[in-house]
Amino acid sequence: MASRRPLRQAEVLRTVETKMILERRGLLKLASTALAAPAVMSHAALGADPVKVVGIHDTSGGLDIYGQPMVACLDYAVAELNEAGGLLGRPVQLINYDPQSNIQLYTQFATQAATRDRAAVVHAGITSASREAIRPVLRRYNTLYFYNTQYEGGVCDRNSFCTGSTPAQNVNKLVPYVLSNWGKRIYVVAADYNYGQITSKWIAKYAREGGGEAVAVDFFPLDVTDFGAAIKKIQAAKPDAVVSALVGGNHVGFYRQWAAAGLKGSVPVASTTLGGGNESLLLTPEEGNGIVSAFSYFQEVDTPANTAFLARFRAKLGARTPYLGAELAMRTYTGFQLWAEGVRRAGAIDRMKVIEALESGITHEGPAGRTVLDPKTHHATLDVHLARVENRGFRVLQTFPQQPPSDTASVCDLAANPGSNQQHVVDVRT
């Protein structure tokens, strides 16, 4: 990550309410009559101490393209619940922190959520690096944690629930599409941290299994903006396709520079990440059209449940409703719903009672389809969609119902080993 000036203590410790974050960033102006007022009214009507929920998502810094829609969906989910009467007769109070894409602040705010705020649950993190900064802190303080982001798999921790898709669910659909439609020789570009490093191995594995090969893999720090040298290397390798596992706002530059080099028409591109941060909105049709991604949700998924949700969401937020793109924002909404159902089933907000309830086979039917929590891994069985960028949005090409988290299941069994507390790196060499 790029270096930043030292933060003043006041900056480090501040709590930023969702409305203030989103107004400052210009993404979403939440008028008091839209979200804040109903929540306040519900608190007064319920007349009980609030259940505190903490969100830690980047609304500034290099990861804000992911964080802003996630915050919007979490805020909406809390307001929706409060308008329906709260949880166990109590209002839910959402406290949002902006870690500014700074690992030290993830740790700081996770500690604050557990010790000062005494949160019943924390929904937090975007990159795997941020998750691994947050997860041990919340486990140490016995604070329940939901990580609602597509990632590389392998986390095995009874205190944590991971609701996003993993490589056995998304890469397993993306790579065969590339091999079948574009060719067998793949060039991989990936983020230089655990997500990119591990996901690139899954890409190579699925390429081998499909009779193809990863001819090369290049890694890039999150703050890289100039991909000129890499593009020349790709040209020299003459692959049939490029598969990207790049992360962050700067990786938009890769797709722009790829198109500017005149390669878009001759070497197609697939991505395990494009769409999660609404990158398609930042690319012109000439730059973005034709890029293929695989996620457990796209805003364009045409189902009655998704259509109904989007109508409610737009009615609440009006003209400044954010585009939800692919997976991350919707998984945040879904993760909150799963936690709330766990509380209802437990009849309490006590951490272990809620964990036991969540391990009883909780299912959420919503805009992302059916999501089923797997008791042994604390991951989700979910629908996966292949989609292609078209005119700054996505067109869904194919849907694969109810894909299990088989990668994590191969290394994690919390029923047999409830004390497990690590991220396994699944052996993908064979």
Automatic annotation (TrEMBL):
Belongs to the leucine-binding protein family. It comes from uncultured Acetobacteraceae bacterium. Residues 50-392 form the Leucine-binding protein domain. It holds the Pfam family Peripla_BP_6. It comes from the Bacteria. This is Urea ABC transporter, substrate binding protein UrtA. Keywords: Signal. The lineage of its organism: Bacteria, Pseudomonadati, Pseudomonadota, Alphaproteobacteria, Acetobacterales. PANTHER family: ALIPHATIC AMIDASE EXPRESSION-REGULATING PROTEIN, PTHR47628.
